[in-house]
Amino acid sequence: MSIRVRRVVSSWFVVMLTAVVVVGCDLSTRADDDDQAIEEGTAAFQFLQLQQDLDKSRNIAFVPDAFYDDQSVLADRPQIVGQERLPGAAAQWTVSAAVVDSLRHQRLFNTVRKKHLTATSSGRFQWRNERPGVGSMIFENCTRAGEDVYGSDRVAIRFGTQFLEYGGGQAGLRLQDERVCDFRIIPSQSGFVPAGSDHQTFAIYSITANRYLVYRAGLSPLRIGGGLVWTETANGRPPGGVVARADFVPDDLFFLSGDDYAVVYLTIRNIGNVTTSGSQQEMKVTVHGQEWNFLVTPPVAPGATVRDHFILRMHLRPCELVTVDLDTNDELKFQIGEGAFSNDSVFANDKRTFYARDLNASSDRINDPPVRSLDCEPIRAY
Fold it and tell me: Whose CA is closest to 93, among 157, 26, 27?
């Protein structure tokens, strides 16, 4: 990420700049009682964030004013934020579709070579001009099967029946029969968008190599890959971005009671940033110690809810505490086939305890809000 220095520089910013320039000195800090505090995210157009996690830290460089537009204009400020994770010159690729999806064959076009990358049945790469509608490769979304590819998804790149693999070194490029979910497709646009949106360029990133696949003119066309090389990322670190994740949390619970059973209705909400995948339609859920398959048949958009019911083999009382635990299958996590980032495992908000709401009671209706602790205090006395 780059932050430019304006002509008028505040005193605290000069101190920061001086600290960067002076290297190898024993520096000490002094704070006076009348010093004005710098709050997180309020200084430098909200680009300053105090960060203890090195994986989320950002390198700051100072560039001439002319490099960016006027940062006093709010619309121009996101350019600096986006610069930290965009692939830059490595974004050499486009596809024939509007976005990189997992449902159709694509024509993989390199904007520097001005041709499509293909592969022969013998595993040799070649550059060709493919006709429209005759794409020879496909991106397989390993993280969210069948869905559009975001920058956080793990992807397998298939040519015919073989899969692209990083083969080691700067020029390592080969095909093999086993699927390799070792790639990420990084969009060239800032913001949370699928790769290739609006026919824009994207970069092909190898997780194993921590490098981008690019075409470099001047290399021998007879070598493996025909001028393709793996080039370092701009800062030597993996590209960042926002994790594409559908994340469900328990939202409401009520029941209809019988003599020795209860029909429990559970509502869950997608608080993630993408619609759920249609490729996985069941999620293991535990309610009051009993596990059942919660059906998520139609795709659920961000912010939307879905409800399912099952028979609980025990009697429930109004306002009884009921614990709900979502996604309890350790062997297969819902909507995540191959993990993207380290923080996309089970979230802490997958569990919640409800005060059970009995629809047999005349005062309760199906669309009432969940029962609060205060509502149940008189009843819980017994």
Answer: 157
Alpha-carbon torsion (307, 310, 313, 317), positive or negative? positive
Higher pLDDT, 178 or 63: 178
Contact 62, 71 (CB under 8 A): no
Identify any residues that bridge with 184 across adjacent strands, giving them in sequence order: 205
Cα 151 to Cα 192, 233, 239, 288: the distances in Å are 9, 15, 9, 38
The tens digit of pLDDT for each residue in 29-61 reads 455 555 555 444 444 444 445 555 555 555 444
**What is the distance between the alpha carbons of residues 239 and 213, in angstroms, rounded to a whole number?**
14
CB atoms inside a 10 Å sphere around CB 338 = 17
First CA to last CA across the chain, in angstroms? 61
* DSSP per-residue letters across 100-140: --SSS-B--EETTTTEEEEE-TTS-EEEE-PPTT---EEEE
Per-residue pLDDT, averaged over 208-223, amounts to: 78
What pLDDT score does 3 carry? 40
What is the C-alpha separation between 11 and 17, in angstroms, rounded?
Answer: 10
Domains of the chain from N-terminus onward: 11-27+38-83 (no CATH), 88-232 (2.80.10), 248-381 (2.60.40)
Return the half-sphere exposure (C-beta side, CA atoms, 13 A cut-off) of residue 232. 4
Which tokens is 313 given? Answer: 């083999």
- At a CB cut-off of 8 Å and minimum separation 6, what does 204 contact? 93, 157, 183, 185, 212, 213
Q: How many CA atoms lie within 13 A of 181 on its CB side?
A: 16
